[in-house]
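Data availability (excerpt). The following record was deposited with the supplementary files.
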Amino acid sequence: MRPDASAAFSWSWRIAIFAASVAYGTLAAMTVRGLVGGFGIGAAGAAIACAGTMAAMLAVLPMAAIIDVPEALWGHWLPHRRWRSGRCPACAHEGRGGRCPECGTPFERPAPWAADWSSLRRAAWVLVPAGAIGTVAGLAASAADERAFAREVGAMRARDPELMEHARARAWPASFTELRWAAGRGFAGPPPFESPKIPG
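Predicted structure:
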């Protein structure tokens, strides 16, 4: 495969991993937001949600090896396959022993691929920004869900001025907890361990 094709694949691969990590970070932030509880989010709640989301992002650190798939493919697997079939590991020119007459690469067994500090650095360049963007997106989605709930309550009170309370589950993936409104108490979003237990 041409070098420009391998570079294009590497970038496409990293962009796909980045997009998946942003999605994961968004869902993690929404989940943490449900665990923290409350309605509306202040500085303390945002800090807790950010810390919880970044802790959840540690679960994807093993993706460092997945991020390096293009390097493993073009830096080890393909050269090793060429070398085993008696061709130059770099350019696939036929020949054995000495140096390749085409590109000058030694006809010797390619070094095995292994994850190292550069792998971790590449993973950090993908996962840290993805986690930050996912956190912001998740908190924004949770805030939008709370605003939608406030509009629901406003519409219900317009239809029924005697309405005393209303509750519904938060948007998925935080649907394990709920948003509540009660006359005289206002809006609340209790964490799941404060939610009433459903009799079994």
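Summary of structural features: The helical segments are 3-36, 43-57, 63-67, 69-84, 117-159.
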